[in-house]
Specification:
single chain, mainly beta, ten-stranded antiparallel β-barrel, globular
Length: 234
């Protein structure tokens, strides 16, 4: 889907964060069984990348998404735009993506910017690690103006405990963070959880914050955000 840095988001973004906080994510990324659309088969799914599953998962992630359809059906969900852009293709230590989320009508004012590192784990699992970005304002819609070429690993800070471990589920991949490992102090939270399902056509992402007793204090309460992939990544 956090660091204790405080940002002054637009009002709509602040409201969205109350429902959709944490990676995205990714993948920040978040599955929920209920309400998920049927998974479509995709040639870049797990069967097509048996020798390097992380490559297949990164290909499924990459693209431009939004949650407009879900928002039109259910006013509890905001229309959010999500971009997941491959970066650093020359690297051999995983597949890296720049991730940007914004209220759809204010796409040039993102409320979350992250980098994901997608790598192979044990037993065929794929790990999506999350990093915050120093001076992130420099990279807003950076795929349009070449700004992402200036992004370096030295600008990244890992979010310890917030890695999502994904496992193949037919033509889809599903995963979540582990227990209470992902610390968060947003809106009185003690820790955050993230769940992800992706299939190449959509990504279901459910981020939630919990206080020390386990009570949910932010995030959607009835199910994940459903992001539909509208276009491939550049």
């Amino acid at each position: 889907m956090r660091l204790c840095v405080r940002y002054r988001y637009p009002a709509a973004a602040q409201r969205a964060l109350g429902i959709l906080s944490l990676r995205a994510a990714v993948f920040a990324l978040v599955a929920a069984g209920s309400g998920c659309a049927a998974m479509s088969k995709n040639d870049s799914g797990p069967q097509a990348a048996a020798s390097d599953p992380a490559s297949g998962v990164a290909a499924l992630m990459a693209g431009h998404y939004d949650s407009r359809d879900q928002s039109a059906r259910d006013s509890d969900y905001y229309a959010i735009s999500l971009a997941m852009i491959p970066i650093w293709p020359q690297r051999t230590d995983g597949h890296w993506l720049y991730v940007e989320q914004a209220v759809a009508d204010s796409a040039d004012k993102p409320y979350r910017q992250r980098v994901y590192r997608v790598s192979n784990g044990a037993n065929g699992d794929v790990l999506s690690a999350v990093y915050t970005i120093d001076q992130s304002g420099r990279f807003v819609q950076g795929w349009r103006n070449g700004a992402l070429d200036e992004l370096t690993e030295a600008m990244l800070q890992p979010r310890a405990g917030c890695t999502v471990a994904l496992r193949a589920a037919g033509a889809a991949w599903r995963g979540a963070t582990t227990g209470k490992d992902c610390a968060s102090d947003l809106r009185g939270a003690s820790y955050a959880t993230a769940e992800v399902t992706l299939d190449g056509a959509s990504m279901h992402s459910w981020d939630r914050g919990h206080d020390a007793t386990g009570k949910q204090v932010w995030g959607a309460t009835t199910g994940p955000y459903i992001f539909i992939k509208r276009a491939p990544a550049p």
